[in-house]
Description:
Layout: E1 4-6, H1 8-14, H2 17-29, E2 34-35, E3 40-44, E4 47-56, E5 59-68, E6 80-88, E7 94-99, H3 100-119, E8 126-130, H4 136-146, E9 151-155, H5 159-167, E10 172-175, H6 179-183, E11 188-191, E12 209-213, H7 226-231, E13 234-237, H8 240-246, H9 255-261, E14 267-270, H10 271-276, E15 286-290, H11 295-310, E16 321-322
Parallel strand pairs: 1-7, 8-9, 8-11, 9-10, 11-12, 12-15, 13-14, 13-15
Antiparallel strand pairs: 1-16, 2-4, 3-4, 4-5, 5-6, 6-7
Bound molecules: nicotinamide-adenine-dinucleotide.
Amino acid sequence: METIYLNNRQVQAVLSVPECIGVIEIVFKNLHLSQMPPKIYLDIPDGDFRAMPAIFDKTAGIKWCGVQLDTTKQKRKINIFAKVLINDVDSGKLLAIMDGEAITAIRTAAVTGVATDYMAKKDAKVAAFIGCGNQTKYQVEAILAVRDIEKLHLFDLDSKRCEYIGSQFDIEYEAFEDVESCIRDADIVTTLTPSRTPFIKHAWLKDVVHINAIGADAEGKRELAPCVLDNVDVVVFDNWEQCSHSGEVQYRPEKLDSYSKGHKKQEWTDLGDIVHSEKDLSGYNQTIFDATGLAIEDVATARYIYQKLITRPITENAEYETF
Ligand SMILES: NC(=O)c1ccc[n+]([C@@H]2O[C@H](COP(=O)([O-])OP(=O)(O)OC[C@H]3O[C@@H](n4cnc5c(N)ncnc54)[C@H](O)[C@@H]3O)[C@@H](O)[C@H]2O)c1
C-alpha cells in the first residue's frame, strides 16, 4: 500500500463529528497507550507555528500547523493551515498525509462532544456559542450529537457569522448583540474566539451551566474572566501540561499547587480521569472544560480515517490519491 494523501474534502467525506466522538472517547479512556511531548511553538507577531508529535497505540504522527490570528488580509479567512502525517509504529512506514484543517475541526469538536457528554446536565436545552468562525459549525454538530438541544444562542463580533452558522442547522437560533444576553439563559456555553481579553463574567452565567473553553490554545489567549475559574465547581482540562501553558488555567497563579494538592473548594482534574473512571459529575452545577487540543487526538483520528479507507471500498466522495 502506497502512502495515501487526503485533502480537506476527502477527510470530511470519510469522518463525521458524531463518529469522531467515539474515536476521541477511546483515546481518553486509553491515555496509557500514548506518548506526547509538549507542543513546540514558534511565535510570530500575529499567531504561531506549532509542531505536535505523538504516538497513540500503534501509530506515530505529527501535525504541523500554522495559526494566523489576523485573517483580515486573506480572501478565504482561514486561520489554521495544517497537515497530519502518520506512520505505523511496527514497520515505520509513512501511511498517510492528511489535511490537518479538517482533522483539527472534527477532532476538536469531538473532544467538546465527549466533555459535554460527561459534564453537562442531561436536560440541557440551550447551547450558546461565542465566536462563529471556522470551528463553530463542527462544535454545534458535536453538542447536538450528545444533548437534545432546542435552541442555539449565537454571538460574534461579526454578526453575519452568526446568521451563517444559524442557517446551517434545522433548529431554532437567535443571534445576540452582546455576550451577556447570549449566555444568560444558556445551559451550555462554548467559547471559540482568538481573544486575548476575557469576555465572560461569572455573574452572567446560569447557576447550572457547563462551559467548553476552546479558543485559548496558546500563551496569552483567554476568554474567561478570573472570577469564572475561581467560582465554578469543577475545572477539567484536556492535558495539564498544555493547559497550564496555553489554556485558560495559565492565568491561575496557584495552578500547579491547586492541581497537585487538591483545591479547597473545587475539583480540578483531567478529561482522561473523568472518562477512564466514568466519574459521576451530576452533583456539580457549574463545570468548565479547558481544551488546548492534543496531538494524540490528531494521530488517533488520522489512523481511524486510514483504517476506514483501507478496509472498505473507496466511494466516489472519498477517493484518495497515492504517491
Ligand atoms: N482548543 C483547541 O483544540 C482548538 C482547536 C482549533 C482552534 N482553536 C482556537 O479556537 C479559536 C477559534 O478558531 P476558528 O478557527 O473558529 O477561528 P476563526 O478566526 O475562524 O473565527 C473566530 C471568530 O471569533 C470572532 N471573534 C473574535 N473575537 C471575538 C470576541 N471577543 N467576541 C466574539 N467573537 C469574536 C471572529 O469574528 C471570528 O468569527 C482560535 O483561537 C483557535 O486557535 C482551538
